[in-house]
Amino acid sequence: MEKHVSTLQWSEDFALGVGAMDQTHIEFVDLLAEVQQAPDDTLLAKWEALIDHTQVHFDNENRWMQETRFAAGNCHTTHHKAVLDVMRDGLRYGQQGHRNIVRQMAAELTTWFPQHADSMDAALAMHLQRVGYNPETGSIAHPEMLPGELIHGCGGDTCSDQNVETAEADTTEAAANA
């Protein structure tokens, strides 16, 4: 009997109005769906492709934050690191024959992504738009809108260091329970 896997589908509801960010998110959703639909013989290759894409995706967002006055250790950047670390742990488990862990992590990402995009990424997109940041060139059209001090949170009203620690713990717990 074949198990039905619910995959995340791209929706314009996920669009944040920053073209480079939206395109990367579309690619992430598509690659995640490929992982979820992959047979066992291609699962790890698809998962590795998702990790590689996610590394570039997060590196870009981290660079955009740094160029627009986010502190290097802000919670958004820390969250990126935690997610990538867990994904890489999943790859190691998968390589040891525990493909069910990779499949569980992929299922968890279908829940994680919309929440992350709707909170941390939405706050970043609003910040980038406010300062007139161009991700392709790194130019800032409205430098006077840059914050006077480095942003230490995620840029959103609900972000705190405790929220990041909770998100990291939730992600690690999901991996351990897979």
From TrEMBL:
PROSITE patterns: HEMERYTHRINS (PS00550). Coiled coil: none annotated. Belongs to the hemerythrin family. This is Hemerythrin-like metal-binding domain protein. Residues 18-124 form the Hemerythrin-like domain. NCBIfam families: hemeryth_dom. It comes from Brachymonas denitrificans DSM 15123. InterPro entries: Haemerythrin_Fe_BS, Hemerythrin, Hemerythrin-like, Hemerythrin-like_sf, Hemerythrin_metal-bd. Keywords: Iron, Metal-binding, Oxygen transport, Transport. GO terms for molecular function: metal ion binding; oxygen carrier activity. It holds the Pfam family Hemerythrin.
